[in-house]
Design brief:
The chain is α/β, with parallel strands linked by helices. The protein folds into three domains: about 400 residues, Alpha-Beta Barrel (TIM Barrel); about 60 residues, Oligo-1,6-glucosidase, Domain 2 (Oligo-1,6-glucosidase, domain 2, Alpha-Beta Complex); about 80 residues, Immunoglobulin-like. Helix content is about 40%, strand content about 15%. The chain is built from 23 helices and 25 strands. Strand 11, helix 12 and strand 12 form a beta-alpha-beta unit. About 0% of the residues have low confidence. Alpha-D-glucopyranose (GLC) binds next to loops.
Length: about 650
């Protein structure tokens, strides 16, 4: 008998992927690096990929194959995300394992754990100042605990996202330490300037990210004897992506995380990667070339793993993160829909959808192989990314509207229900970003300021309705909706947020609360999510209903686009999702008025006999009839 000489099937697949994806990777790299840098760079990339392939666990290889057979796995309507800090959600990684039942109860299938790699000691910007990409934060668990959590999630049909902070490292990271020690190779990992000439030239056009507690974008470091580029805090050093060694170093990190079992890498602050004199140093084309190269390389080593762009930029700059022009469908698989998030709060404050309609219509359809990540809010502040042109087009002044939104959500506008906090008031531009949990922004604190009685009860009903409406918009838009931990329980801003060491000047900690059932362990709080007489119970139950209805609506598959219809009323957002199985019409009343939508709108889209998939109610209307929307009501209309 002739022994079987055929190569291992996984090795063969690896070679095929190399053949398929390396040209894509190379094209991205060629747009960025000098011709003479290419040969050693490509050799290094291939060697990293071969090494990573050799180490990929059999269970992950099987998952890769499953995903190759179902490439739209992340676009399907059963995707529902949940984002949390491990310790604030469940103590540590073992605690997260124990809490998976809770997430399943909500319908969650995608878990984003905020930075969990070893950060610098002391203040670390919530872990966004990474000192060691190779090691999980010891107080959260070990690398093995992370791998084991990933395996459990996969068995339960869930996926795991972690942050890849790739614009900067902590001053304490090995690369930075070596740079400080004078090693030339590592000095070249950073953008260093001997004097203020360079920083001054760049700062002429650079916006400040943290003007309040970290003004400027450069920091002089005695040990370096140079100015380091520090877009964020003084101890977060921007790396220099124009150095090909930096690309290879991050590719190694990417492969390491993928091989631990991470399914989605969140590309933190991706917009800032490339610096160009005379610009804002955000959204430069090289950012997309580099993403294309990283993604193509990842497709070779760990084809089931996705990239997610965290680009919190203006609406006109957002689409390229899912790919436009030569990058169409070749960059990140997922991107935060920052613009939709801002518009949700804008509609709620102004009780008017016309700006939103105009703004959303400016977006080209996303590549059909990608997905937006939709959200009501996240662990960061809300910056009012309202485009001046969009505002003007609907008769608003952009600056004034942004000012109104800040006033409204910090409770400074007469009659406002928002009770958020002003984050980073920029004296130069007048910008005021806002911190706050969804419940605090949607009026829970304001309602509780009222004396016990009918007025308070009515205000609480409105809060519940607003929270469900805002989440319905993001769950009914198409893409992966992600809930921010605590919002499903209507948690308010944490009153003790400033007490923790290093947090006092960063009020984003106000909206990163610890979960009540974690607090329960400490004997502080009672969990009433299952009690429908409470605000918490109503919100939790409502979110579960939204998730359940969403799962049954094929129209919400991310490959299909959202059509933003002419509003049937200035207070009603109407979103149409066409699909071969029939359309879905989402109607969202952003006001506290009862609104009637004419029956012909439904008839026009073949929905004069349909079902509201949220309530289960059959809707039968003629052109002359109307559909009623209670204050803040949502209707998801589709065939029964
Ligand atoms: C991202 C994170 C934010 C952090 C910043 C710097 O925007 O979401 O929390 O401060 O990057 O890493």
């Amino acid at each position: 008998m002739v022994p079987d000489q055929s190569p291992d099937v996984h090795d063969e697949l690896f070679e095929l992927r190399l053949e398929r994806w390396l040209p894509d990777c190379e094209a991205g790299l060629r747009s960025v690096y000098r011709p003479e840098e290419m040969a050693p760079l490509l050799a290094a990339v291939e060697s990293v990929l071969r090494g990573a392939h050799a180490k990929r666990r059999p269970s992950l290889r099987r998952l890769d194959q499953r995903r190759a057979l179902r490439p739209d796995w992340f676009q399907r309507p059963d995707m529902l995300g949940y984002a949390a800090y491990t310790e604030r959600f469940a103590g540590d990684l073992a605690g997260v394992q124990d809490a998976l039942g809770y997430l399943e109860e909500l319908g969650v299938t995608y878990l984003h754990l905020l930075p969990l790699l070893t950060p610098r000691p002391g203040d670390s910007d919530g872990g966004y100042a990474v000192a060691d990409y190779r090691r999980v934060r010891p107080d959260l668990g070990s690398n093995d605990d992370l791998a084991s959590l990933a395996d459990t999630l996969h068995v339960r049909g869930m996926s795991l996202c972690v942050d890849l902070v790739l614009n900067h490292v902590a001053r304490e990271h090995d690369w930075a330490q070596r740079a400080r020690a004078g090693e030339e190779r590592y000095r070249r990992f950073f953008r260093l300037f001997p004097d203020r000439a360079g920083p001054d030239a760049y700062e002429a056009t650079l916006p400040e990210v943290f003007p309040d507690f970290a003004p400027g974008s450069f920091t002089f470091d005695e040990e370096l004897d140079a100015w380091a580029w520090t877009t964020f805090n003084s101890w977060q050093w921007d790396v220099d992506w124009s150095n090909p060694d930096v690309f290879v170093a991050y590719l190694e990190v990417v492969c390491h995380l993928a091989n631990l079992g991470v399914d989605v890498l969140r590309l933190d602050a991706i917009a800032f990667l490339w610096k160009r004199l005379g610009t804002a140093c955000q959204n430069e084309p090289e950012v997309h070339d580099l993403t294309q190269a990283l993604r193509a390389a990842l497709r070779v080593a760990a084809p089931g793993v996705l990239l997610k762009a965290e680009a919190i930029v203006g609406p006109r700059d957002l689409m390229p993160y899912l790919g436009t022009g030569r990058h169409h469908g070749r960059v990140s698989d997922l991107a935060y829909h920052n613009s939709l998030m801002v518009q949700v709060w804008s509609m709620l404050a102004s009780r008017d959808v016309r700006l939103t309609v105009h703004a959303l219509r400016q977006f080209d359809p996303a590549p059909t192989t990608t997905s937006w990540l939709t959200y009501v809010r996240c662990h960061d502040d809300i910056g009012w990314a309202v485009d001046d042109g969009d505002a003007t087009a609907v008769g608003l002044d952009g600056h004034a509207h942004r000012g109104f939104l800040s006033d409204f959500y910090c409770g400074g506008f007469p009659g406002s229900f928002g009770r958020g906090l002003v984050f980073q008031h920029n004296e130069a531009t007048g910008d005021r970003r806002i911190s706050g949990t969804a419940a605090s922004l949607a009026g829970l604190d304001a309602a509780l300021e009222l004396p016990d009685g009918p007025a308070r009860a009515a205000a609480l009903d409105s809060v519940v309705a607003r929270l469900l409406l805002t989440h319905a918009v993001v769950m009914g838009f198409g893409g992966i909706p992600v809930l921010w931990s605590g919002d499903e329980l209507a948690l308010r801003d944490d009153p003790g947020w400033a007490d923790e060491t290093g947090h006092a000047d960063d009020n984003r900690w106000a909206h990163r609360p610890r979960l009540p059932w974690v607090r329960n362990v400490l004997g502080e709080c009672v969990d009433d999510r299952v009690d429908p007489s409470t605000v918490t119970g109503q919100v939790f139950g409502g979110m579960r209903r939204l998730a359940r209805a969403r799962r049954g609506l094929p129209q919400l598959h991310a490959a299909w686009g959202t059509e933003v219809l002419d509003p049937p009323d200035p207070g009603v957002l109407a979103l149409l999702r066409r699909h071969p199985e029939g359309p879905m019409l989402g109607l969202y009343n952003v006001t506290e008025r009862t609104v009637h939508v004419t029956g012909w709108l439904l008839g026009l889209h073949g929905l004069s006999d349909c079902v509201d998939r949220l309530s289960g109610e059959r809707v039968l209307v003629s052109d002359a009839d109307s559909v009623e929307l209670a204050p803040y009501a949502t209707r998801w209309l589709a065939a029964g």
